[in-house]
């Protein structure tokens, strides 16, 4: 197996003092074996392979865990969690800031491994790395503010002192997908750790080593091994035993699987958060700058080869700009650099698996057979590698076509001419999904239009990065696109149990001894009438 490239951080920092020593150089086989050894197992297990989408090479093998391994990982996590929660916010903050620094110091190695396991272009891999570092820094610096005890208005003002405190839930289960194996394996775990929880992660079976590399850096930063456990294997095997044992679940994946997860979490009365599928629209109105919008649309549609829950798959272009915008978009998409490589040359990489390639082929073939026209792309590229597919634009897409309403999760976008903003808005909302949307027009008008789109995030004059990168704000889906939110205050409070403590002083709530109940009721009614005029203060 060809070696994974290694690097010297001094090259990257160009003479600046690195925050940590240069990483130990390793051969690929040594490194992969060490990462596989981080998986929790009761004993010897069969192994499952991970293959590189670029060329099918074997990346390595990890244990195929079972319910007993999940049990062991959760037991260890539960035993270690109290000690971790007993650490101060400052101690946990320093661990997460060290992790932030390590991610940046090891970025070339992490990018190589992410590309090796997913086949994505390097810029798409870099977006993952940025997200991990930004999320670690954000929650390291804000967790205490989000979770500090807060005074609330008491039952009887002046007589009831009411405080809300937050306790960690305990052990958080994280089930992460293959499309963003670096960020979705650890970025959702970071706020859970900062809140004082332990974590058990099940990364996707196709991309375990990227997740394990990030977990290894968490250990190096100071997270105790038992506080963050990893089990590897199929979700169909490990999902249920994990839900049966953890105290809260974070899931990212398809809507179909999300329904199963929701049902099982409900049965066990544990909370969960889920980011699910999307069929995300972009609206381009007549006053949009064509050149700027075309360039942004390319990123919004084809980042990560379209295998992004928040990428654009439907585009509605106002009639007045359609004949200028669409030819320019077609020309730009046709010129995109597609290929394999551990450098910054290519804009579009490989699909991740034969299954994804089959879905993309099926959607395009079905649409063309039913009358859709290919504006550019529309075919696989086996000359570049086994799982490559050209960035594709289609028009004349109708509701009877599979890709009209079903998430393709590949480099395929349907473009449609619309009369005006109102028709675009109606079509954008005509979906069971509600994850992300994009609007291109004057900023003031765009914000007003964005408020009318039923999606958890809406970007004005951007595709997806503006809302995703606003980590202080919640991110998640409406309708069938998810439950709960990641990022911001909501993204850490969900991993806690809020507890209300009320201290009653001087007078009890209820009639005093010897006081007639009728008199008590009259006094309380008068008090309520008086309090109605007082503003609620926080």
Order of strands, main sheet, comes to: 12-13-14-11-10-15-16
The CATH architecture term of the largest domain is 3-Layer(aba) Sandwich
Q: Calculate the terminal CA-CA distance, rounded to whole Å.
A: 61 Å
Largest beta-sheet details: 7 strands, mixed
CATH superfamily of the largest domain: Aldehyde Dehydrogenase, Chain A, domain 1
* Helix percentage: 40-55%
User: Which ranges are low-confidence, i.e. pLDDT below 50, for 5 or more consecutive residues?
Assistant: 1-27
Based on secondary structure, the structural category is alpha/beta
Overall tally of structural domains: 2
Q: What portion of residues belong to β-strands? A: 15-25%
Taking all Cα atoms into account, the compactness measure Rg is: 26 Å
Global mean pLDDT: 93
- The CATH topology of the largest domain is given as Aldehyde Dehydrogenase, Chain A, domain 1
Separate helix tally: 20
Structure summary, number of beta strands: 18
CATH class of the largest domain: Alpha Beta
Characterization of the model:
- With 538 residues, this protein is of the alpha/beta class.
- The protein folds into 2 domains: 62-276, Aldehyde Dehydrogenase, Chain A, domain 1, CATH 3.40.605; 280-476, 3-Layer(aba) Sandwich (Aldehyde Dehydrogenase, Chain A, domain 2), CATH 3.40.309.10.
- The chain is 43% helix and 17% strand.
- It has 20 helices and 18 strands.
- It has helices spanning 9-13, 28-36, 67-86, 89-105, 107-118, 122-147, 183-186, 189-194, 208-221, 235-245, 255-267, 290-302, 319-334, 354-369, 402-405, 421-429, 443-450, 465-469, 488-493, 517-531, and strands at 47-51, 58-63, 150-152, 160-168, 171-175, 198-202, 228-230, 248-252, 271-275, 280-284, 312-318, 373-376, 392-395, 412-418, 436-440, 457-460, 482-483, 496-504.
- The strands form 4 sheets. A 7-stranded mixed β-sheet has the order 12-13-14-11-10-15-16, with helices on both faces. A 6-stranded mixed β-sheet has the order 7-6-5-8-9-17, with helices on both faces. Strands 3-4-18 form a 3-stranded antiparallel β-sheet, with no helix packed on it.
- Helix 3 crosses helix 10.
- The relative contact order is 0.12.
- Mean pLDDT is 93; it is low at 1-27.
